[in-house]
Amino acid sequence: MKEKLIQKSLFLIATSAISILVLITFFIFKEGSPLFLKKGFFSVVFGSDWSPIEGHFGVWPFIVGSIWVTVGALVLGVPLALACSIFLVEFAPKKLRLWVKPAIELLAGIPSVVYGFIGVVILVPLIRVYFGGTGFSVLASSVVLAIMILPTIIGISMDSLSAVPPSYREGSLALGATPWQTVYRVVLPAARSGVLASVILGMGRAIGETMAVIMVAGNAVRIPGALTDSVRTLTSNIALEMGYAIGDHRMALFATGIILFGFIMVLNISANLLTRKK
Amino acid sequence: MNKKFTIRDLNIRYDHQVALSDCNMDVFANEILGVIGPSNSGKTSFLRTLNRMIDLNNQAVVEGEVLMDGKDVFIDLSVEDLRKRVGMVFASPICLPMSIYENIVYGPRRHGRRKKDELDSLVEESLKASFLWDEVKNRLHTSALRLSGGQQQRLCIARSLANDPEVILFDEPCSGLDPISTAKVEEALVELKQKYTIIFVTNNVKQAARISDRVAFFLMSQLIELDQTQTIFTSPNDKRTEDYVSGRFG
Amino acid sequence: MLKLHQPLLVDKAVKVLFWALTFFTLIILFFILGFLLKKGLPVVSWEFLTQPIRDMGKSGGIFPSIIGTIYLTLLGVVLATPLGVGTAIYLVEYTRESRMTRAIRFGADCLAGIPSIIFGMFGFVFFVITLKMGWSLISGALTIAFMVLPTIIRTAEEALKSVPQGYREVSFSLGSGKWQTVLHAVLPRALPGILTGVVLSIGRCVGETAAVIFTAGSALGLPLSIFDSTRTLSVHFYILAREGISMENAYGTAVVLVLSILLINIFAYTLMNRYISKNS
């Protein structure tokens, strides 16, 4: 009797994660989707005019902006992160790995505002001097994001590289392959889905990052034409205007949220499928 | 003699794999019943049915009757009460990660016994009965995990005794122990017979011969033969029993 | 590239390159830390930690922010922990793999991937506006509780799974019920692992900005009830830095923020390591 009650309550508690997910999805859609009905889905998503006062809510510049900085972050961050994790798992002495991995994971705890701040005081002036422009740019955001996603990608891909059975390596080495050939031909393919999942999760982190990007991106409402141009992402658009938006304007910010939500869900589900296959 | 368990037409399956078929037997009070047979012969499934530990495996299907003192263990008794009355000691000594004292009072506490002096004397009695008291009386509140394997197994016995059971089931209690520890556990077993009914499963035929009053031989999911220890080892009815106890297979 | 005649040379080159890249990565990460400490440590003093915020942060200390951060974080974690641990207990102890458990895990995974700004928006319309809680400690705490729930579920699940099956069997064989077994045989053993997750969540709450700024607000005073707005350290730091109010105080706040998070995380890791070595 008592056991039944406990089981029922635990079940209720266990549904909390899904209920919260549903609640969040519901509210974001409830607040944002009327805009699509009012202005038309395509004119919102592909419109490039965002002037809330005049009632124009085209979020296309922010979609492009998010894609720009995310791709930039991946281009800079992924090779670095993969090189790190391969080096640490395959080549580095064990002692070094035992030290470096927790160190990198600890650095993952540094708040995003702090990364953004470092970007403002160090990176932005550097870019201004060497590449021109104001320095608040796609490039600055990409570099900051690349650094921020390093710990995520390194952590997960190190785990999946370590999970490759030693016998695979031994088999390859025994056939006369060099260590790098072994890594490239045997270990990486075997760890492929985990490594890919780490990149996707890193991508999710980059596209969802807000505060750090706001601080270094410049936030101009236009489609950036060069790496040194100012850029505004989906997330920064929300955070910048959320504080004072009312009426249709707020609805438009939630519509921005819906689009962001869509991107994130696609990434989540693909990472989920990738890891489940194993 | 007094019947403790009456088992009628007992069938046990896991999904579609038969673990025991049409088993009929009686277990008498205050006897030591040894259960022998090669691995996968159904002896552990049989043992785990008696205190319904088999319930934990949700693929297991049990049919037939198991009566304890005339009451069906699956119908008439609550599972907590049954397990309190039918204790169990596992193959490897599993001490909970707490002190020796806490391990022993774990069962009684769950059944609502709270008084400190009562628990104290319970601990002493149980440890004495399992021949462990002298070795641990000065460190009752240290971790049980620091004991040797043999001591841990005797602690597990003491832990069962603290529940004041009527029957104790042993599932290959000496399989992980050295000969000296084994001897101590066996000594405890024989002594316990005075008060409890004991059923123990073993892979060690000689051990069964040393300490049991009667022996049951299981083979390929069937009870082949159950008789006095003497009979089983000198003039068994079934050729297969003779082959097994004489070491021709298994 | 692998078809070269001197594969060993390639090997050497790759190793050196990877060494350099790893070194470079570490340099970046430690440079950030070193830079902050160098600029910020001189600002941090007893007065800085204990004085109220004055002139919007131009002068004075960060005391209300420290208190606000502690309140908000503790409240959030206290709200999330029972839900997270309860979910994990249900998943590990009370059910077998089924469509339901997969759905619950999937929900937790999705929740973990949602960016904090979305939690912030949600908290703003739901707690602040719909439930009329206003910008307050409680709105902020509920929002971050939702945010860290998946972390707590995950770590608690791992911790419960690592408890040997034998402990449950022993407990059952002594006549304990399911709940008694969970409570007395399983949970004590899983506790350090569960705590690790909780501590990591605390670290995450302390550093959170986007989800907090729209739900807990940015009031400068000391919060006196859970319905008061508060300005956490990270929000304070963000405002100082972004609006260029005082770079000096921004560095000081950043150092306090980063050091406390590092300490919290180091604590979590030592807890985990001791737990792992005890388990094996």
3D architecture notes:
The complex is a heterotrimer of chains A (278), B (250) and C (280). Chain A is mainly α and 278 residues long. Helix content of chain A is 78%, strand content 1%. Chain A has 13 helices and 2 strands, in the order H-H-H-E-E-H-H-H-H-H-H-H-H-H-H. Chain A has a two-stranded antiparallel ribbon with strand order 1-2. Chain A is globular. Chain B has 250 residues and is α/β, with parallel strands linked by helices. Chain B has a domain at 3-95 and 168-245: Rossmann fold, CATH 3.40.50. Helices cover 36% and strands 27% of the residues of chain B. In chain B, helix 3 runs parallel beside helix 6, helix 4 (116-129) crosses helix 6 and helix 6 packs parallel to helix 7 (179-192). Chain B starts with a strand and ends in a 5-residue tail after the last helix. Chain C is mostly helical and 280 residues long. Chain C has one domain (46-279): Orthogonal Bundle (MetI-like fold). Chain C is 76% helix and 1% strand. Chain C has a two-stranded antiparallel ribbon. The two termini of chain C are 43 Å apart. The mean pLDDT of chain C is 90.
Keywords for this structure?
heterotrimer, A: 278 residues, mainly alpha, MetI-like fold, two-stranded antiparallel sheet, C: 280 residues, 11 helices, 2 strands
